[in-house]
Structures are given as structure tokens and as C-alpha cells.
Amino acid sequence: MTVTSKAPLSKALWGVTAFLSIGIALFSYRYLGPPNITESPQILANLFARPWLLVHVAGAATALLVGGFQFLPALRRRRSIHRWLGRTYATACIVGGAGGFVMAFGTTSGPVATWGFALLAPTWIFTTVQGWRTARARRFDEHRAWMIRSFALTFAAVTLRLYLPIMQMSGMPFELCYPITAWISWIPNLIAAELYLRRGQPRLLAAG
After folding, report:
1. What is the pTM (predicted TM-score) of this model?
2. I want to staple 128 with a disulfide (CB 3.0 to 4.6 A). Which of 6, 17, 93, 177 is the partner?
3. What percent of the chain has pLDDT over 90?
4. Would you say 123 and 146 are in contact if contact means Cβ atoms under 8 Å apart?
């Protein structure tokens, strides 16, 4: 998702994405403080919540916080800033993914939720590492494509928090909707990224 002055819709989409990402990131940092059993008891009930929740939140929230800014052309032109933010983002994704993978096997929501999150974590790490590798190899077109996929998976932290309350408001019990969101929070994001790349590949590759 490259933001240009010729694409007001893209700018609006980026603005909404950045707003939601930053908001969820800042809200999630609360887990780095003293534990509060009144907040998200289902998450704190995870068998591996301590210390892996701290690892996951520190990485995932930081990736959400900085990731969206990497799509701004003005920032990408400042190569040193783009490079260091990219390293921060990639490291945060790997850390967050590792923590999320361990926590997936401690969930109390059953095997459907376990495997949804357990498959998200290595997929997230893989796309990020590919983005990092292609950047180091100076294959920048491939790098941008992999990082779009990576951020689509990073954004699962946002879509999960959008789908979950909507499903609960529709009358679905948490025990049913949480395992479902373990899958729909990231698979549609990745599909949307692939569709974007397939439809906009010439435009994406032309946008430096």
C-alpha cells in the first residue's frame, strides 16, 4: 500500500489504517505493566501468559506502531530513517511472532484457536524475514511486496479486535467467536494483500 498525492483514496485508507494501528498499539502496551486480572481474563488465563504475553505484546505493538509509516513515500526517500524503522519493525515482528507462537499452545479456547494463531505466527515471521532478505539483496520490488504481506499480518491485531466485539454483539458466545477470529483475523488480510499485489503490481513496481 503506497500512499501518493494522486491517490486520495489510498491516503484515506492509509490514515484509517494508521489510526487504528497506533490506537491498538498504545492500548496493548498496558499489558507491559503490572498484571490486572480484571482486564481480558481470557488472555491472562493463557498457560504461557507469563512471560510470553510480555514478549508478544512488546513485539506486536511496536510493529503496529511503526509499520504503517514505512509506506509513506516521503519517509522512504529518507533512506536512513526508512532503514532503521524497517529494522525495528522486522525485529518487532519476529519477537512478537515468537511470543505469539508459544502463547498459541497455551490458549484455553481449544485446538481451533490454537492452530489459527499457531499458523499465523510463523507465516508472519516468514513474510517479514523475506522482506528483510530481499531488502538486503537490494531486490526492492520484491521487498515492498513482502512487506505488504507482512503488514497485512501485523494488522491482524486490529482486525481481531474489530471482529470479536461485532461477533459478540451479534449474540455469539466468546467460546465460539474467539476460535473463529483466530483464523479470520489474518487470512482475509493476507488474501486482500495478494489481490492488491496482483491488481496493482505494475503501479506498485513503478512507485519508487
Report:
1. 0.86
2. 93
3. 68
4. no
